[in-house]
Write a structure and sequence with these properties.
It contains 15 helices and 2 strands. It is mostly helical and about 350 residues long. It comes from Kutzneria viridogrisea.
Amino acid sequence: MTSTVAEKPTEDDTPRRRPLRLRLASANTLWISLVLLALIAVFAAINPGAVLTLFNLQTTLIETSVLLVLAVGMTFVIITSGIDLSVGSVLVFSGITSALVMNAMSPGGDSTGAGWGVITVGLLVALVSGAAWGLLNGILVAKAKIPPLIVTLGSFGAALGAGELLTGGSDVRTVPDALATTLGSGTSFGVVPNLVILAAVVTAVGAWLLGTTKFGRYTYAVGSNEVAARRTGIAVTRHLVLVYLLTGVLAGLAGFMSLAYFRTTTLTSHSTDNLNAIAGVVLGGTSLFGGVGSIIGTVVGVFIPAVLQKGFVIIGVNVYWQPIAVAIVLVAAVWFDQARRRARNSR
């Protein structure tokens, strides 16, 4: 009888893990974080007395909170290799329905003095309104197999038009004082705006959902290879509907937050929120081709346009340069993503 002794793997046979410095160097989140820090450093060097202040930090965080909530939902959609152009209009529609219901429940049709019971109903209406549009988008994308660009472009116009029909094209300007002073302009711990805390909680939950749960793993799988995901038993159609539903719910929450902060429905102020959310997500390293992305990267990406806008105002640069600068950074981020994919596929 002959015995066979297994040969020990040689050094060339054993898989090698890349050094930490190489893994960090290839991480999109690291590079985009360095870009953000560089922007802050440049603006601080030009005008340190105006940039590095508590007031500027608070206002930047507040102005970014609503967009960040939209971008969290957009991250899930783009990871599935989809897109949602309707979030800005859904935000407006949700704010309108919430404000109208709160007014209808208040004496004289004026919700200014309404209590937390009415405000809670208004929140639920905003969430349900956003969920309805998200569910519609998801069904048309996942079940009817209509491209997400076409579906959400249609709902972009439909949601805004529906909101204008409900209000006759005029903003609803009566908002409960308790909502505006608590969520809209209130602070906790003396300095932290409540709006920022809510956005941080949403972001943390989104990061947990994407990074540690089955829902997050399925999201990456669907975006990486939808056919392979189906073959492994993932209910792709159901999952895509849930992803668009989640995005709609977050757009509804963002509408309620906007209503609390501005004390009005701001019909014409959110026309570019969809593009800003997409830009923040892509700048944060989420691939438009699907399968790659993170909530942490989205947080960093969302703050780049905010810092550019605030910095340009502080140092006296024409604010109209801001979208040009964001466009350059965005195109560079997409080019980097494509170059990385080509390099990986060529190996």
